[in-house]
């Protein structure tokens, strides 16, 4: 008899989830599994929003941002009694295996669920923050970086006529990855991230000298997780460096956009490896990408560690911004 | 003998200036005029940054945002003595006619210059704010609107998974055009602009009811010129409507981006009509676009009037947002 | 009692139809009408694919290309007996008024239907070819032009390193509008359209001279409707001008893409005016856009006339390309 | 005394060259080297188009497609006497090291030059075809894939209303990489590449059945290097499958476009590793990217081997398209 396998999205959605859903259906069918969708994340597990999925359900979604099956942050799933209900729902549909697109919080929840009820799962790291330990890449990051790029490129077009500093806030929570890569690839003059202590005073002299030498504008990329508010950085430019400053807060536009080719291909590969793992005795793992290859890692090694920024990138930061 | 004609950009730059420069050179040559560039706006007039322009100078710029010849806001040009220097510089190059890409402040300055020194000019309304009286369209607006659209579309992709209100601030100074058109064309749930008084209380009940009926998110587009800060609107959503809110401040990304086809075509037409006017006894005018056609208007009718939002658009606002 | 009104798409779809559907539902409800969708064009009329439409049906489509309700080219609707069935279906749903997004063929069909059965309708000109007499703008054109622009801009980036001629074919059937505007706004060196006779020989000498003077590449925009195949133009470059040539056929990518702001706003206005007309004794008309305003025109004046290219544009063509 | 190092682009340009030039200047200066540009590839070496480069030369180019310093295919450089001239020119500028952005032909030429004259160099694989042995990634591929994606996404928007097959030709010469990844990430129904023999007959039955079962359209991605012309594939759809077909030839638009974040970051890393290698006894190598890391390889291992498509990708092709 064919086995049943389900997929769900948990936490914030990212571009790349839709291509993942499409490939999930196709790859499940190819492996003689019946694919199911759980709608609205763990909330849907509890509320039995679980349905069979077919080719038709994933037609025309490969190029769309967001996730067709919804996502959620579930407080209820943190309670034992709701997890018991979730288990009943899965049993009702005869579902033994779950693929979970989410972040480390979602994986920790799933880990508990596995230990309590034996529901096998494989996590696929999905967050634009790229802040999950154990994997060098999380689904959605590339699309997000390219949205940020487009925004910064547009600002750059106009920057020189204004004689101003442009202070641009990126997402990332406690992780400076988005800000750092954006700064490197846009040639920004300043990059501030939570991982690296900074002292604005050290830039003051240098920036004043650059203005005196003819520099017309500054691009500053700051991660939302730094200790100061983006408006304080703008204020510093105005008061200490002596140049008018303007703020851009990119906000949730960083979460959307049509998925890039890289995110579609990674979605494809993550899903293939996740299903392969579930069919081959990986019952409580996250599929991780490192050094060009995929490996299953334990929840312990992924969701209970602190993410470290790539040391090569940190060196570049140091080189470029003398921090 | 061939006459000399120059072009300059004044005030904030907009996408569409580069295509205008390209067509200026081509159309001047076709009309047996020698084209000149004045770099860095009125500052360049004063500092004699004036050069002959040729086909080579405009190769490959038609698809670039910003302006190749720079722009500026000049305080010196408001003083008689600097205008006298500017006049000397123009005389030195034997330049009799100027095309000025800018806003109403720039046109008023040029008007004084004309009255003092007889330098003929034609203004081309250029500002993303679309806030110049006498013309229904200003160069750069379409590109700006499409940049805003792309940002809002990306937010919309992700909006439904979050159960949040997204409050997006657009530019426009005292004019709500960008915000209003963006709201209409993105299907936003709220639109606040400086021209129309609003009372947040009137939305409170309705928005709460919509949430109770299943609505997952709100898009709110607010113009930078409204009486409250965008963060206060977000706060209102959180405290009064009872939904988490996030802020996006688009900032100067609205000023850049590759010019759209519409802005390139308008650049083409504005420049043709400006030069035609200068060659046909229009010596102190702005070329305006209304009802699908172009007419020269006096500075009085353009730069000394307050811009009024299109009444049809205001009706739509009323229809959609019950204000 | 509330009246029922339906909308359908006929012929090739265009970007802008989805925003039109969204506004149709909203504007119908606002005017106390019950909105219906007819799926798959006239085929759906015959096969009774007709359904009530609600806000939910149009959520999240404003930023999508194509049309959510499908379109078709129907041969059956050209036969009296199928039109009789269509009428029965409409009667069954009590639908008295139709909004038809389509081209002149679709309008002629509807005109016959009106004369036979008295079903009131208003046509909205929708085709990327912009080849409908009586209106200066057809829904979808702006999006299409911007897709073409993006393609040409990408070719321009790379053009100079190759020493080649790039021959780019645009759509447009018998109408050169897309090719002509694309050429003007991309600074192409050659533009060939069906409306204007050309003689390649006249360019030969000039192009050879330009190569001798250092020109590295040519961009040629040709409309699909010209007498020669795009490959023959490439061959001419290679054999007569003496420069390697490469062909790009844009094809149906010109029909898709997220609708631009201009197309969304035009969709909005076309639909408002169409419904207003139907409610005000316009029973057999097409809503047309000229000189910045909207007027209802008879089918005779729209669908039985040959479209003429804007004479100002033709002048530009002549100026630029000496034809 | 500071040493001199130069960079040049050879062969077809790719998006990513400009960010590479920017980082070259910055990283050379940081390593106490004097950076030089060689304009127009090996032709410029022969004609002494060699100049010092500074920060100013690379301002504002990081987001531009193409290459600011030009590129060329040089026949003269294949002759000993011209290479001798090239060597004299380099000596004249005291340049000891070269970074070469190009393909395997360019690297073979440089290898001869090194053996004759001892000019140290490091190659950076740069071609959208991704067909260089020894490296899994060539600069420019990601940008190219995303341009193709945008084109296919636009076609997909409109595909379902037409009941047609869309046959899209990608570049790649003898390599099917672009076509294969594009097909996987766009969910195409057919993918034909030169590396894998195909038999159209095998698809005929299945495609007819799919049409009978309700399929409205087909997307077919074909690589330019297959044995048949793209038009023959379209003809096959019309004559054998029985569905109207339309052709899109993407052509050189695949070579342009603003470089993606991935290509900018890879440009950054390739250049850093190339210069590091030259300063550390790598005198005749290509810097290659595999398994997430960079290694220097000999010309023998790169430019004299045939590129093999990634076997995992080939499996996917087989899975999806039963070839």
TrEMBL record, chains A, B, C, D:
Reaction equations catalysed: beta-D-fructose 6-phosphate + ATP = beta-D-fructose 1,6-bisphosphate + ADP + H(+)
The protein's annotated pathway: Carbohydrate degradation; glycolysis; D-glyceraldehyde 3-phosphate and glycerone phosphate from D-glucose: step 3/4
Taxonomy, superkingdom: Bacteria
E.C. no: 2.7.1.11
A biological-process GO annotation: fructose 6-phosphate metabolic process
Gene3D superfamilies the record matches: 3.40.50.450, Phosphofructokinase domain (3.40.50.460)
Cofactor: Mg(2+)
One GO MF term attached to the UniProt entry: 6-phosphofructokinase activity
GO cellular component: 6-phosphofructokinase complex
Record-annotated Phosphofructokinase domain positions: 4-276
Localization in the cell: Cytoplasm
Key words, A-Z: Allosteric enzyme, ATP-binding, Cytoplasm, Glycolysis, Kinase, Magnesium, Metal-binding, Nucleotide-binding, Transferase
Family: Belongs to the phosphofructokinase type A (PFKA) family.
Protein name as catalogued: 6-phosphofructokinase
Natural source organism: Sulfurimonas paralvinellae
Lineage: Bacteria, Pseudomonadati, Campylobacterota, Epsilonproteobacteria, Campylobacterales
